[in-house]
Amino acid sequence: MVEFKQLSHLDSVLTNPATRTLRANDLTGRWVNTNRETKGIAECTIERQGERFVISLMGVGAKDLIEWPAVEGKLLANLDEEGGQRAVAVTAIFEFSFMKAETYIRLNRGVLVIVFYITFLDNSGRLNYVTREFFANHNNFPVCEFICHPHIDIPVGVLE
Fold it and tell me: Residue 152: pLDDT above 80?
């Protein structure tokens, strides 16, 4: 029988609650989708409120962004076997009358990666699915708003 010892696989920093929260601060901020053609999520905002982390999403609508209700995230240890990365991730569940979106959010080399597990609850016959989207930190890329959101008109001279 193989014994699984998760703590032996964790970086000791991740087992300390104070350090785990500090490292999770890297996830905070406003993030914009790197795919300007996305039909999914355009923006993700992660805020720290005391010991809580609150996640807000903005979906792409026909004409404007659609604000999803903010939810509290739960911190997780992120173990990347291939890269040997030891970091903190966050999970959040968004529930609507017609759908549930489970999200797993982590940083990978400065890019916020969100994996979405979508389950439809409305008996519409739509297939449940999983997808992954990539986000850049808005604070580090001031013109990202115009590059990442094709529905925003670019003022003359901004990108010159």
Answer: no
